[in-house]
Design brief:
The chain is mainly α and about 260 residues long. It contains 13 helices and 3 strands; from the N terminus they run H-E-H-H-E-E-H-H-H-H-H-H-H-H-H-H.
Length: about 260
């Protein structure tokens, strides 16, 4: 009984705090050692004593830890609680962190569901292709629809031709140019117009950059680009681009006096 009377009113021992919050005594000792949460007082007998305020700070630490922050990150993010505004700010920060985590988890769930759908459409197990799809899903790259249409040789060519940054840059340019082509189609700009031919020249330059001048790769692109019935928004856009570009490319190559497609037939 004397031991219990030695604990001042309003204070808790390390064991009591551990039980209340559901952590181990060793964890609290470690947080003290790392400067995250030190006891507010010490009893006459040398026991570490905590207050309700310490419990709130501990809640901050545990919440941030559950969101994947390192202890160093948590130390920088802790809001010291002196006023009601401090507490409100701490809770606001926690709420924002949780919202961010929810967004990440939602994106991860969407990617998993999309990958599952893609995997079920493939007839053979191909972990290399699965990995490519995962990377593109993580980059929020809608062109991952292309990956399932590419054979292994084409995918190896892409891996050798582009690193992550270069691949993203290429797709940004490709998608931007495709959007311009869709706009030309909406405005009914003639294939032989100067505006159209300028964009066709740029588009063909991207194709040559992608193939690195390999005409056999051009044939594979032609096969991949042949979309009879679109199954998603990306393919719908690409079908519009293909239909509009076909006569425009004929005009372009006619002016150049070449037929690159004849070289791969």
């Amino acid at each position: 009984m004397a031991k219990h009377r030695a604990i001042p009113q309003g204070y808790m021992t390390v064991g009591e705090v551990a039980k209340k919050i559901g952590v181990t005594v060793r964890t609290l000792q470690y947080y003290d050692k790392e400067g995250l949460l030190s006891p507010s007082a010490e009893s006459e007998g040398g026991r570490r004593l905590y207050t309700d305020k310490d419990l709130v700070t501990l809640h901050q630490i545990m919440s941030l830890k559950s969101l994947g922050f390192s202890l160093d990150d948590i130390k920088q993010r802790l809001i010291y609680l002196e006023t009601p505004t401090d507490v409100a700010n701490a809770l606001t920060e926690q709420a924002n962190d949780i919202r961010g985590k929810i967004e990440q988890l939602t994106a991860s769930l969407t990617a998993i569901e999309q990958l599952k759908a893609e995997v079920l459409q493939m007839r053979t197990v191909n972990f290399k292709k699965y990995a490519d799809i995962i990377v593109n899903l993580q980059m929020k790259n809608d062109s991952y629809y292309l990956i399932k249409r590419f054979d292994d040789d084409t995918l190896d060519h892409i891996r050798n031709q582009f690193d992550k940054e270069g691949g993203l840059n290429f797709m940004d340019r490709f998608n931007h140019l495709s959007d311009e082509i869709v706009q030309l189609q909406k405005e009914s700009i003639p294939p032989e117009s100067e505006k159209c031919q300028r964009i066709v020249e740029e588009y063909w330059g991207l194709i040559m950059e992608f193939t690195n001048g390999d005409m056999s790769m051009l044939l594979k692109l032609m096969e991949v680009g042949n979309i009879d019935a679109a199954t998603n928004a990306w393919e719908e856009r690409q079908k519009i681009v293909n239909d509009y570009l076909e006569p425009a490319l004929q005009v372009y190559f006619s002016k150049l006096g070449v037929n690159p497609f004849g070289e791969v037939e």
